[in-house]
Amino acid sequence: MPHIDPRSFLPLTEVAFEILLSLAEGERHGYDILKDIERRTEGRLRLHPGTLYRALARMIDDGLVEQAAPDDRVDERRRPMRMSRLGADVARAESARLAAQVGAARARRWLRRSV
Amino acid sequence: MTARFYRLLLRLYPASFRERFEPDMTAAFVALLRERRSTGGVAALAALWFRTLVDAVANGAAEHVALLHRRIAAFRGGCFMWHSWLQDIRYALRGMLRAPGVAAVVVLTMAIGIGATTSIFSVVRAVVLRPLPFADPGGLYTVWVDAPTTATVAGGWLGPQLGDRLIAVAPPYLADLRGRATSFSQVAGISPSWAMTLTGGRDASVVPALYVSDGVMEILGLTPVAGRDFVAEEHAPGGPLAALVSTSIWRLAGGEGAPDGRTISLNGQAYAVVGILPATARFPGTPAEIWIPFAQNPFAGARQVPIMTVLARLRAGVSEQQAHSELLSVAQSLERDYPTSKGSKLALVPLSDRVSRRARPMLIVLGASVALMTLIAVANVANLLLARASVRQREIAVRSALGANRWRIVRQMLTESVVLATAGAAAGIGVAYWSLGTLVRLLQDDLPHGADVRIDWQVLIFTAMVALSAGVLFGLAPAFEGSRAAPADALRLGTRAGEGGRRVRQALVTAEVALAFVLLVGAGLLIRSFWKLSSVDPGFRTDSVIAAPVGLPGSRYPTGASRLQVFDRLLTSVRALPGVQRAALVNRLPLGGATNNAVDIQIEGREPEANPRGSGQSALPSMNADRRIGSSDYFATMSIPVLAGRVFDERDAPAAPGVAVINQSMVRKYWGTADPLGARIRIQLLGGPGPWMTIVGVVGDVRHHGLAAEVHPEIWVPLQQAPVNGMVLVARTGVDPDTMLDTVRRTIRSQDPELPASPVTLGTVVESSVQGPRSRMSLLAAFAAVALLLATIGIAGVVAYTVSRMLRDIGVRMALGANRRDILGLVFVQGLTPAVLGLIVGTAGAVLAARALAHMLFEVGPADPATFASAAAVLMMTAVLACLLPAFRATRVDPLAVLRVE
To answer: How far apart are the first and last CA of chain B?
Structure first.
């Protein structure tokens, strides 16, 4: 497989980064991702299935997310989502990018200590 | 149930997307629904459904668009598509080289069409689309007095036209407007086109100057390029004399760089140059390059002298409507305070409208004509390419046999036509550059002075668009016609193109003839109108007369006696010149441009106040006439007939009883059939009524305001009794007046070297008075001529093509005993059918076009039968001519030779 530079995907959209954050903890179905993001953002980001699955479709096409084997105990057609190696690399690269920005903001005292 | 409904919603997504995620999305939705049911009420559920609906619609549409993008990208196949376009273009260029004659004709035809379109569009861009070089021009308005009576005033570009209801504002009202109207953030006033004598340079010259109130620079968003704007002190009455001048005037005065305390002499007075105007300070419609504070204007305080064009900028958030209604109430309050403004309303007009108004009708006519001409060119080229497409059918058949699909062939042929059109456009831009100067010169009468007409990127984009659409337009028919033939048929030897091609060509020629007829009728109407205009009797003899404005600076010739003295000396010395027969002075030259000399008059015994019924309102309408001043020999010099009584002579000295001569129109209007001689009239001047004058003579009417304009009643008073500063010297010569211009100039200078002297022949003045109609006529005639030529080529092409296809037919007929006349008839029917059809279709268009032209016509009706008939005759004659050559060829067919081919 040819090497793809994770930085070529940056910056990620907010939705894409949140999806990767959710999938970092393991395989998940769409509804779980929705709820996880809603919980983590304290209700600020409430995705609907359409928005979520469009983002997932792009990420699958780009190779950031994979569809795992169907879980036949629930529904043999439903397939949980899983973060790929590339997805993890991209998530780390994005985190580094964000951290650098936050660091710069902090240096200008735009953020209070507690943040 | 809900899951099934959600699945229905998912149909909004593309099928491929649905297949991938439908079970997952449905499960997610059902879970969401279950959660919401357990926690929220009905409202929460409804909200969820609503948001789900919006989500499905929005994301479904977005996914469709994304899919489409991917498909297009896949279809293009990356650089392959680009590569094949290049291939097409290369192929097209090779094709052009293979048939250079066809290519040259197409490029030339398109160059004419596109070139003319480009030139006209660059004028439209300059005059209509971007008429003002000022900051935020859209917010700039002008305020006018909407006069209850028909104004008799006329003045320049921004000013009202004759018969216009809107007149300028008297200067003192500027302060009232500023105080009472809150709709405007800024209000300022200008008065354009005051002729002043500039001395101090090499020769004295008459230059136009602009009076400006304070705030003009700010309202236009301008700043002086050097020096400063006027200060408050200079705007105050009696303040120091100051001027802002253009760079060229500054150089003329010997200045360089920033103002250095230098003065220029205007009308004999020294004005300190305080600043240099930027190049954009050219006020549309006036050539003035000198700005002077309004306080120096002799009428700055006169409430009855409407000379100020008021500029106003709308306050942010105020609509034109609001400002307009506020102006109405301001007018009412002004009416209470100043009874002289009784009955007047105030009108608000966008400045850009005011500037482009005069050019607009003409530009519409020219734009439409040029569009018609270009369409004819396109039809002609389409015709030519159709003919070529039938020749190229074998080549196309080979290509499609080798696997090119129809779309590929259509694309190839469209590329060829667009390449041809692009080449035509390139040549057309050359044509436009070359013709633009001439065009602007021809149109100068209709264009605001200093209009920034040039070919810039906007014009070039327009040209590119025209070229592209022309290419597609003239390429469509040949492309589809050419790609239609089944390869097997076309490859078989001896088969010929289908009947469809011929029909398309006939239709194209019919359209060409129809469009050409519209242009011919338009041009014909203007030609007839101009001919009528030229044969109007101006009321004087225009040949062999020299005219030279002589403006005496008021500061050096303050009294009437001093002016009369220098005028007298001047006349004596001019009369003494060999070749000069007569010389005289007049204050306004006839046909010398729009000038306003209307004054209110009273006729003794008919004064409004003497009217017994006149309580409250005057029963008699106010009488007015144009006041003109002439020296004693004026009527003889201009050969204006004296119809009754006498004209001025030495009896009418300054102190002698006042006399006046009136024109025929005045007699007709105020006396009817009665005898006016001996009656007494007086003129209402600024300060009150002037002295009574006895009417001693009646002279013929002179068309002062233009050959097409109606003659006003006129009162002539002798120069001796009204010695004003500005007069025009007229001299009748026994030799060619052109040869005497220099002598006259030197003679004027010899009287006073500071007098401006630029003599012209009266013929030039008359010529330039009809310049507008003349240029419109010439331009439209040129377009019509090109259209006629193109239509002729089109007819000839179709007939020649038809004949070449009918050769076998003709051969058979001749073998069966048909004579030459039968054959000729056959050919002429082929050629004249589209011409006749085109005439019929074109008549409808011509009637509409003529109606649009109606306001430009003089004494010619828009439905003038003679014009329609002659345009039709010209068109039919050229159609017959176009048929002659192919017809001749048809009669020369050798039946044996044609039939032997079979």
So the answer is: 78
Query: Per the CB < 8 Å rule, is B27 touching A79?
Result: no
Asked if A54 lies within 8 A of B20 by C-beta distance, the reply is no
- d(C-alpha B513, C-alpha B875), whole Å: 8
DSSP state of B286: -
| A34 touching B (Cβ < 8 Å) | yes
Per DSSP, which regions of B579-666 are E strands?
Answer: 580-586, 598-603, 623-630, 642-645, 659-663
The whole-number mean pLDDT for each consecutive block of 10 residues of chain B, a chain of 902 residues, reads 81 86 87 83 81 84 82 62 72 76 83 90 83 79 73 44 65 86 89 76 76 89 88 88 88 81 84 87 73 87 81 88 87 79 76 77 86 89 80 75 75 85 90 88 74 83 89 83 63 51 81 91 90 87 87 81 90 90 89 67 70 40 80 90 89 88 91 88 77 91 83 89 87 89 88 81 84 83 87 81 78 82 84 89 91 85 90 91 84 76 58
Residues 6+ apart with CB under 8 A from A7: A93
Instruction: Write b or e for each residue in B833-850: b if 16 or more Cβ atoms lie within 10 A of its Cβ, otherwise e.
Output: ebbbbbbebbbebbeebb
Cα angle at B238 between B235 and B244, to 5 degrees? 40
CA end-to-end distance (rounded Å), chain A = 41
Tell me the chain A residues in contact with residue B48 when contact means C-beta distances shorter than 8 Å.
Answer: none
H/E stretch holding B216: helix B216-220
ipTM of the complex: 0.88
- From chain A, the residues in CB contact with B70 under 8 A are none
Q: Give the chain A residue nearest B56 (alpha carbons).
A: A50
Question: Token digits for B597?
Answer: 């000399």
Phi, psi dihedrals of residue B159, rounded to the nearest 5° = -75, 170
- Would you call A75 an interface residue with chain B, using a CB distance cutoff of 8 Å? yes
